[in-house]
Design a protein that fits this description.
It is built from twelve helices and six strands. The chain is of the alpha+beta class. The chain folds into three domains: 105 residues, Butyryl-CoA Dehydrogenase, subunit A, domain 2 (Beta Barrel), CATH 2.40.110.20; 157 residues, Butyryl-CoA Dehydrogenase, subunit A, domain 3; 130 residues. Strands 1, 2, 3, 4, 5 and 6 form a six-stranded antiparallel sheet that branches. β1 and β2 form a beta hairpin. The chain starts with 11 loop residues before the first strand and ends in a 9-residue tail after the last helix. Flavin-adenine dinucleotide binds next to β2 and α6.
Amino acid sequence: HCGTDLGMIRTRATPNDDGSYAIEGTKIWITGGEHDLVHNIVHLVLAKLPGAPDTTKGISLFVVPKFLPESGERNPAFCGGLEHKMGIKGSATCVMNFEGARGWLVGEPNEGMRAMFTMMNEARLMVGMQGLGLAEMAYQESLGFARERLQGRSLTGAKNPDGPADPIIVHPDVRRMLMRQKVLNEGMRALALFTGHQLDLSVAHGDETVRENADNLVQLLTPVVKAFLTDEGFNNANVGLQVLGGSGFTTDWPLEQLVRDGRIARIYEGTNGIQAMDLVGRKLGLKGGALVRTLFAELTSYLKDNSDAPHREELKAAMKRLETATLWLASNAPKDPEQAGAAASPYLRLMALTVIGYLWSRMAGAAQQGLDNGAENRPLLESKLVSARFYFEKLLPETDWLLQDIESGKDSMMAFSDDHWVA
Ligand SMILES: Cc1cc2nc3c(=O)[nH]c(=O)nc-3n(C[C@H](O)[C@H](O)[C@H](O)COP(=O)(O)OP(=O)(O)OC[C@H]3O[C@@H](n4cnc5c(N)ncnc54)[C@H](O)[C@@H]3O)c2cc1C
């Protein structure tokens, strides 16, 4: 019964005499809830103490081991069954029954949400990487296939005249699919590395202002990394499957599994819709808007310091759209929270595409510099220049209609009455 809305949790924790708690309740869809790969399993369980408020403010976090420390006794935290899933079949997803299992409070009573978010924030970044990893496998598989599969002739004359046909990589439509995968995957990897770098700066830099700015960016970009990398990780795995044609649909090739496995990443650790709500409903307003201001400062100073930044005008235009969307939210969301809900997903996407545009501009700049300085790895550096061009010509323009989507507001989404849905 309780999913996104954690306030509805029914699992209870009753204090025992020895300072531990008796945990009673059932959790479904618990990843790795039961298995015999390790000697012990330590569950982190959200539950409510007696008399706790019926909202997320009444949730506490407990640590519940499968085997109790010291005695080694089996704690009554049992797997009630395995879920039957479309993908990630190597991961045991369990129904867990806590039948008075002994647990110990982590942190303060009723502060479970805050404690859990320490783990969730890290997990969100990791799930983003899961999406990206699957997309990269899909790209490599589909590239190999496209170079070998012979079908049709190039539109500009045979490229493999001695063979019965040309490899499908000669066809513009196949190249569009491969380019989309490669360019977006590299852009997403850059976004993940940029966020990881900010994470390092936020804990280890000597200057407090640098630490604070980096932390602002990490907080802002965590839902973006989770949602965009899993949305596009899945989409790119799907595009990879398409490159294989009918072979992609069969279990003889790994693509169908990548698509099935990639689907969950858009759902768990908070659905991507909830990530967008976190960005718009929470992160934009945090510290009086300081998080998003830090992002704009980063982009603005890049353009100011690099008058010859590659694809400067396109990047400026995307930034302007992101700014316009942010101001639109600032003026409309406080009056009507449904406007924020309606704009959340396109806004997250607009931010992701814009930040990746900034990173592609930087990558192209670095590649050009390497080429100018006679670097040896020319194919890599040349590919970066072409990839950046593809990004700015074919992918970044989506920011234009994302802004239109946001500015057109909620009306056409909210106007249906109940009888309109099935009319
Ligand atoms: C394979 C698998 C493994 C999992 N592993 C774990 C685990 O180890 N531990 C764990 O605790 N959980 C785990 N989960 C649970 C997972 O985190 C939830 O499924 C997920 O958070 C979504 O909750 P839900 O399924 O109840 O969907 P719901 O909350 O019912 O959401 C359904 C839809 O409504 C949308 N929605 C809901 N509320 C709102 C809102 N307020 N505003 C806008 N949209 C909304 C959602 O975005 C979604 O599209 C796992 C799930 C699966 C499938």
